[in-house]
Design a protein that fits this description.
Length: about 270
């Protein structure tokens, strides 16, 4: 749609990179304010964000490249051009989560309390980031006859797949709206059924359910689709089923155990591990 917003000589401002940066900044700002409200030094949020962002970008790009190795065999340096092809959400999420866990353990902070603080930020960042996908023209949907179907311009990836005269689902915008809805749902859910880690894993459940659903309308290369019996499933759907199961198990475990104090999160709950 608008992959490049502006150019100054050899330098270009890419819409996907810009929206990704805004997603990170918005997420950090929200987590910063929530940390202050919960009694956690917000500087930890900023420091952890740097670690998670770097790890998330590396993990997201690495996962994308591994799935599309044939696209890079003739141009290996294109691996570093993350605005071409983009990144895989789950790759970034996994490595970012691991990096965040390591940081919190080293700082002796309660992992699950901090995870609950940042959970809404993840969803809001998803809301902003998917707008970048729409502007970039990636992550588009399959053909549709619905009135809200989008015509992507000549030369776009969607044009190469379907042709510029075919209306397709704007799955990027569907996902962006879903991110915003989940963000407000999390803020509402935080008022009840509270124990350390519950909000974070509820976010993972909601995202996993959404990803399973939206992939029925999203275009994928044949190499990313698997045939299981009479069903066709995408790599992301399989991953989402896995994270959904893990989330349900973790919610069950955390509801019965105490991590860093009382299982009920309150103003008096310490943010540091004992």
């Amino acid at each position: 749609m608008f992959p490049t917003i502006a150019k100054l000589g050899p330098l270009a401002l890419h819409s996907w990179g810009l929206m990704l940066a805004l997603a990170f900044l918005a997420g950090i700002a929200i987590a910063y304010l929530r940390a202050k409200k919960k009694g956690l030094d917000p500087q930890h949020i900023v420091d952890m964000a740097v670690v998670v962002i770097v790890a998330g970008i590396i993990g997201g790009r690495l996962a994308y490249v591994l799935v599309h190795l044939s696209d890079f065999k003739d141009f290996p340096l294109e691996v570093f051009a993350i605005w071409r092809g983009g990144m895989t959400f789950y790759g970034g999420a996994v490595l970012g989560f691991i990096a965040g866990m390591v940081y919190l353990k080293r700082k002796r902070l309660n992992v699950w309390i901090v995870a609950d603080i940042v959970a809404p930020s993840l969803s809001f960042g998803f809301f902003v980031g998917r707008i970048g996908c729409f502007l970039n023209g990636c992550c588009f949907g399959e053909p549709t006859t619905r009135a809200w179907g989008i015509l992507f311009p000549l030369g776009s990836y969607a044009d190469q797949v379907y042709g510029a005269s075919v209306h397709i689902h704007p799955t990027q915008l569907y996902s962006s709206l879903a991110g915003l809805v989940i963000f407000f749902l999390l803020l509402w859910m935080e008022r009840w059924w509270r124990f350390n880690g519950s909000l974070f894993w509820r976010y993972v459940i909601l995202y996993s359910l959404w990803r399973i659903f939206i992939d029925f309308f999203r275009y994928y290369e044949p190499s990313s689709i698997y045939q299981i019996g009479s069903w066709q499933v995408t790599e992301s759907q399989l991953t989402s089923i896995g994270t959904l199961i893990v989330s349900i198990v973790m919610l069950s475990v955390l509801s019965r155990k105490k991590f860093g104090g009382s299982a009920e999160l309150s103003q008096s709950t310490p943010v540091s591990s004992p």
